[in-house]
Amino acid sequence: MGAAHGRLHPDERWGEVVTAVVVREPGARVDAADVVRVCRDNLAGYKEPLRVAFAERLPHTHTGKVSRRELRELPWPAADENGGR
User: Fold this and answer.
1) Residues 20, 8: Cα–Cα separation, whole Å
2) Are 39 and 20 a contacting pair, CB within 8 Å?
3) Could you read off the pLDDT of 5-44 as tens digits, one per residue?
């Protein structure tokens, strides 16, 4: 993975769930199941993403931080694209 960021995703059952937004390094063959597996091995259960979205780049503010406002505007992954529980 080149970069990743978590965001909350509206969910009918849970209210909100974690979605990982991932930027692949050029030539990397990373899929949603790989991302979830790494997160499951390294994060607490409540931080594991239930969905994974892939982006060309993460939006940044003029200070270099990830722009959460612009990140919310990215398209949500479809339910069948998830790699979570």
Assistant:
1) 9
2) yes
3) 777 777 788 888 888 888 888 998 989 999 999 999 999 9
**Domain ranges for the chain:** 3-81
Say if CB 25 and CB 56 are below 8 A apart. Answer: no
Whether residue 1 contacts residue 22, with contact meaning beta carbons closer than 8 Å, is answered with yes
What pTM, to 2 d.p., does this model score?
A: 0.71
CATH class given for the domain over 3-81: alpha beta
For residue 48, give both structure tokens.
């594991």
Q: In what order do the strands lie in the sheet with 3-11?
A: 3-11, 15-23, 51-55
Nearest Cα neighbor of 77 from 14, 1, 2, 18 is 18
The burial class, CB within 10 Å (0-12 / 13-18 / 19+), for 48 is buried
